[in-house]
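Narrative of activities, Objective 1.

The group set out to show that a structural description can be obtained from nothing but a protein's sequence at a throughput compatible with the screening campaign. Below is one input-output pair from the validation batch, recorded exactly as produced.
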Amino acid sequence: YKRQVMDYKKLIIRGISYSQTQSGAYALLLEHPETGVKLPVVIGSFEAQSISMGLEKDLKPPRPLTHDLFAEFVENARYTLESVIIYKIVDGVFFSNINFVNRLLGDSITLDARTSDAVAMAVRFDAPVYTTKEVLNEAGILLNLDFPEEDSDDADEEPAYAPSKSIQELQSELDDAVKNEDFDLAIKIQEEIKARNKKID
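Output recorded for this entry:
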């Protein structure tokens, strides 16, 4: 690779959810496990389906998807996919390289790719996905669904979410929001339940 692998930060796939911000799009959530920093990448529905299919090894589509076809070609050309590197982000767009190595000769090829395609290929070869600390610093977020207790002075303010609803109703809405992967709403309801519980104490 262009830098030593030790300089790169390894990412794991945390999941794919429907994008709350862009209709018809999905969010691929990658995570740097050592810090818990998440990298959300907006991808199209075809790529979301292809990555999901690639992760589910038992699920084989009746006809090969584009990424299956390319993976088959790579195999037949005696190459293997060694790694994917998400190396920069410009105006919210991630840039990735796919690194291939010839199994017989040991020579390597690096191809530029959209990150969604690169990850769809990586899952088919069980290859690692890396990024740089610059990308993590610029685009990474800390998603913490388990909120720390905060000392705030505004405990007397009106509750932020549905003040007229009971805790039981809120709990059931929270379960639905999580089921529908509407994490924005889930966080709001969770904060409200915590605020109510604090007031009862």
